[in-house]
Amino acid sequence: MPDQTPPIALDIEDLTVAYRSQPVVWDLDLHVPPGVLMAIVGPNGAGKSTLIKAALGLVPRAAGSVHFFGKPYDEVRLRVGYVPQRGSVDWDFPTTVLDLTLMGLYGKLGWIRRPGRAEFDRAMHALEQVGLQDFAHRQIGQLSGGQQQRSFIARALVQDADLYFMDEPFAAVDAVTEAAIVNLLQELRSLQRTVIVVHHDLDTVTDYFDHVTLLNVELIASGPTTEAFTEANIRRTYGSRTLKALGVS
């Protein structure tokens, strides 16, 4: 009888990334099962965003291999969505919220074929999911910080991916937007999608996520939050001095 176990959503082996010969991620192995909501936490400069970018091929790897659902990224790129940091985006670019959302479909449409009614309906549905349907024709630079964040999440949602990377989706958003994003992430998990989030607030890790990866250039721990998010692992990740600065005794 064939093995019915679903393939690992993200399988990273021996990953090293270096900038100017300085390791940013060092000899990392990470295995993320399908259908989990995972936080990546660690101090500034720990390599959290670099890990995501290296997995997606956005920055070069010095060593290591990355597979999604058992295959290289180029073979499954339509199954993987990515929400970058809001600060990395040119919000003065002359495009509307709806057009930005439609960009999430270009991988399937290509750059020549124009979106039709079905694509516009999917984009509007994604905007409804993030509460931006009334802003569809507004220029993206006219949105608040929280609305900008939600617009990029809509662009990822319209892909209908199986795995999502989100780089600091809660940065500089208000409490209402944060709650809305959390609900969306948990809804994706209920649909058996895998969501990997770079996250900074240690106080909400256990409330928001069922898996966690603790990173400080090297992998400290990874697994179910109840097992990996321990005081000992947090101290190994951040160090006592950093924890005191964060207000953690």
Q: Which helices and strands, and how do they pair?
A:
Blueprint: E1 10-19, E2 22-32, E3 37-41, H1 48-55, E4 63-68, H2 73-76, E5 80-83, H3 97-102, H4 106-109, H5 117-129, H6 145-157, E6 163-167, H7 175-190, E7 194-198, H8 205-208, E8 211-216, E9 218-224, H9 225-228, H10 231-245
Parallel strand pairs: 3-7, 3-8, 5-6, 6-7
Antiparallel strand pairs: 1-2, 1-4, 8-9
Helix pairs in contact: 5-6
Characteristics:
alpha/beta, six-stranded mixed β-sheet, 249 residues, single chain, three-stranded antiparallel β-sheet, globular
Radius of gyration (Å): 18 Å
Structural class: alpha/beta
Give a quick account of the main beta sheet: strands, pairing sense, barrel closure.
6 strands, mixed
- What does the average pLDDT come to? 89
Q: Which runs of at least 5 residues are low in confidence (pLDDT < 50)?
A: none
Q: Strand order, biggest sheet?
A: 5-6-7-3-8-9
SSE topology string: EEEHEHEHHHHEHEHEEHH
Number of contiguous helices: 10
Oligomeric composition of the shown chains: single chain
Residue fraction in strands: 15-25%
Q: Ends: how far apart?
A: 53 Å
Question: What is the overall silhouette?
Answer: globular
User: How much helix, percentage-wise, in residues?
Assistant: 25-40%
Count of individual beta strands: 9
How would you explain this protein's 3D organization?
Strands 5-6-7-3-8-9 form a six-stranded mixed beta sheet, with helices on both faces. It has a three-stranded antiparallel beta sheet with strand order 2-1-4, covered by helices on one side. Helices cover 35% and strands 24% of the residues. The chain is of the alpha/beta class and 249 residues long. Helix 5 packs across helix 6. It is globular and about 50 Å long.
